[in-house]
Amino acid sequence: MRNAQDGYCFSFPAVRGLQAGKPFYIATCPLSTIPKIFVFDEDEVPPELRAQRTLNKSRIPEMVRYLVENPKDYVFSALTVSVASTVSFEENSSLDTPNLGTLKVPMDAQILINDGQHRRAAIEAALKENPDLAQDNIPVLFFVDEGLKRSQQMFADLNKYAVKPSPSLGALYDHRDESSELARYQAQHIAPFKGFTEMEKSSISSKSGKLFTLSSLKQANKALLGKSAKDGFSEEEKSLANQFWEAVYDATPEWQMVLNKELSPSQFRQDYIHAHGVGLHALGSLGCALITAQPTEWQQTIKRLKDVDWRKSNPNWANRSMLHGKLSKASTNIMLTTNALKHALSLPLTPDERALENQHITSSEASNG
After folding, report:
1. What are the residue boundaries of the structural domains of the chain, listed by start?
2. For residues 188 and 192, what is the distance between their CA atoms, to the nearest angstrom?
3. Distance (Å, whole) CA 352 – CA 338
4. Which among 104, 146, 162, 300 could disulfide-bond with 4, CB atoms 3.0 to 4.6 Å apart, if both were Cys?
5. Which of 364, 366, 368, 337 has the alpha carbon at shortest distance from 353?
């Protein structure tokens, strides 16, 4: 890292503080400097290597209008940024006030926005419409960056109690949550998830080349390992989860066809149940029951998934995975889908599953009668 004292620097009046044992700095910056020195890297690197969410450009015009129409009466909260460089802080010797002075940041340092990328974009656009705003100031909270992982964790922490990002994006950037860590690993290394997992959004468009969302994979793993929201995973459990999904992939011809480019992801999602979250979650629940019942033989039994007809047109999925012709991720539908898979593998139902199954059968008979 380059030291701020070795070359030309940006200088900011600042206050130094301490948080979690690490220094941070609160500075005031002219609006004119914001677009020039604070980088938002949406177009430069993929989401798994970024520290921010994708810019929602539809939010920008309203924010710009707010600034331009209220030049004497607007409020913008502080930006939070990470500096990928060593900084220096010079206390003001003329004042008997510790931690008040000048923050110096190398001009060639990369400064990434952890929170406030939409404000940055709005400021840039507003300055073009009203250059007089250039002399206004905005507070900026500086953290000295400890790498991408720290920046992504800051994003997850900052947004945990604010307007939340999508569950997939939260899973992507949250390095403290072991279920998120497992899902990220599988999305990068395990078939059929490698290259086919939507890392940012929690829904997939009909024309997308992705099969599953990161959040649905995370939920499927929890079902597979029988975990609640805050439970962690042992290394053995993580390895078991990876083995399970690889075994399911080997027993699922359609997944193989997609990876072999014999079936497009969009066509797969259009025609099949197991290209969606409800199918993935049901497979996780099936795996939990199967491995519990057959801890040493489950890999042989799972091969019988090859005989499952996953097509949406299969009447067996009506009012199970499908409601009124559309997929449903409601808990009852996931359980009913799991019931059908357990039946295919000759696994017994739990009392709750049997009660729901009887209710399903009665309802189906009534509607057909």
Report:
1. 4-160, 167-368
2. 10
3. 12
4. 104
5. 337
CA 101 to chain centre: 38
Per-residue pLDDT of the chain (369 residues; tens, 9 = 90+): 344 445 688 888 999 999 888 889 999 899 998 888 876 555 544 555 454 556 778 889 999 999 999 999 898 989 988 887 788 998 887 767 788 999 998 888 877 787 888 899 999 999 999 999 999 999 999 988 665 566 667 666 766 655 556 767 666 666 667 888 898 999 999 988 998 998 888 788 888 889 999 999 999 999 999 988 677 888 999 999 999 999 999 999 999 999 999 999 999 999 999 999 999 999 999 999 999 999 999 999 999 999 999 999 999 998 899 887 788 888 999 999 999 999 999 999 999 999 999 998 888 776 665
The backbone torsions φ and ψ at residue 166, rounded to the nearest 5 degrees and listed phi first, read -60, 150
Residue matched to tokens 């997308």: 208
Task: Tell how far CA 75 is from the center of its chain.
Answer: 30
Question: Measured between alpha carbons, how far is 78 from 185 in angstroms, rounded to an integer?
Answer: 34
Q: Measure CA 114 to chain center.
A: 15
CA distance 113 to 138: 14
Task: Please report the sign of the dihedral spanned by the C-alpha atoms of residue 90, residue 110, residue 169, residue 182.
Answer: negative
pTM score of the predicted model: 0.60
Q: What distance in Å separates the CA atoms of residue 264 and residue 68, rounded to the nearest whole number? A: 47
Amino acid at 265: P
Say how far residue 183 (Cα) sits from the centre of its chain.
10
C-beta of residue 214 within 8 angstroms of C-beta of residue 183: yes
Q: 166: closest CA among 220, 215, 217, 112?
A: 215
